[in-house]
Amino acid sequence: MHRPAAFRQDDLARLHAQIEQAPLATLVSHGEQGLLATHLPLLLETGEGDKGTLYGHFARANPHWQDLAAGAEALTVFVGANAYVSPSWYASKAEHGRVVPTWNYVAVHAYGQAEVFDDGPRLYRLVERLSARHEAGRPRPWALEDAPRDYLDGLLRAIVGFALPIRGLEGQWKLSQNRSPADVAGVRAGLLDSDDPQARALAATMNDSGH
To answer: Which terminus of the chain has fewer Cβ atoms in its 10 Å neighbourhood, N or C?
Structure first.
């Protein structure tokens, strides 16, 4: 990831929080089958003094897991709030007009090599945790126990799990930090006035970051 100093984010707690907030990651690797990308919900598990470990699973029919099993390095991309920034929002547009459009966003990249597994009990625990995470807060959360066990066993045989210890972790919070305070205020106001929920979420992120 190209990270200009103004946008660089290295705070481990904030990087982990962004991973937790991203419902769907993109996992990319390059191995014997070439460049592959798969979109997956992932779980983050953290321990004292480490960058954390990501857990997820592929459909067994997806050949991507085979490259991971062979040792291919993986990149996982977590994209947060993002939105188009109009140059008309900049106060400096009225001063000199030397402004152009851009895109503001929050993103985290995690790198590592995965351990692939397919034993039933471990896969069951993984799917159970993923389901519990995304069912949390629902009035009547669904649980694995709600489905017949023989049906679940068949589904578990159709997936392959992985654990990916994070070796490298990079973040970029591109929130107009390279603009003047007046320009930043204009961007924030423009985002808040948008009908796009992503734009309003990005404005909130700018407030939380002190930009």
So the answer is: N
pLDDT at 211 over 70: no
What is the C-alpha separation between 154 and 142, in angstroms, rounded?
19
- What is the 3 state secondary structure string of 170-189? EEEEECCCCCCHHHHHHHHH
Task: State the DSSP H helix or E strand holding residue 121, giving kind and residue range, or none if neither.
Answer: helix 120-135
**How does residue 23 score in pLDDT terms, banded at 50, 70 and 90?**
confident
Is the predicted pLDDT of residue 201 greater than 80, yes or no?
yes
Q: Hey, what's the torsion of the CAs at 44, 3, 190, 199, to 10 degrees?
A: -20
Tell me how far apart the alpha carbons of residues 15 and 13 are, in angstroms, rounded to a whole number: 5
Give the number of other Cβ atoms within 10 Å of residue 36's Cβ: 19
Task: Say what the pLDDT of residue 49 is.
Answer: 75
